Amino acid sequence: MKKKNRAQWLYIALLLFDFYLLPLLIKDTGSGIFLLLLIMPLLVFLGAVLYGLGYGLHWLLPLAATILFVPSMFLFYNESAWVYGVIYGAVAAAGNGVGRIFYNKR
Q: How many CB atoms lie within 10 A of CB 92?
């Protein structure tokens, strides 16, 4: 398997962990907001930056973040959480863009 493909699969695994295992830690509204607004976007951003540093810009990252969040929305939250999917996609695009900037500097 190519290194780039392996990195994409690792990013998808990070998203799966982020969207499907971390919500199991939610105990109350405060912990839910903390995870949804701070921890989960931070992991999405850092993963996208790391991918961008190693492999440059890729359109798959924001798309994967948005698409993989949608089923978790129905499992752990409600329909009003759809905006988080859009936000996570934008965060992934921003992180990948930041990583791409430094990818060119190498």
A: 28
As a 3-state breakdown, the chain gives helix, strand, coil percent values, each rounded to 5, of 90, 0, 10
Return the residue matching tokens 């959480």.
Answer: 81
Phi, psi of 27 (to 5 degrees): -110, -35
Looking at residue 77, the DSSP 8-state letter turns out to be: S
pLDDT band at 3, cuts 50/70/90? confident
Residue showing tokens 């830690």: 25
pTM above 0.85, yes or no: yes
CB-based contact 60:8 (threshold 8 Å): yes
Instruction: Report the distance separating Cα 47 and Cα 25, nearest Å.
Output: 20
Distance CA 98, CA 106 (A): 14
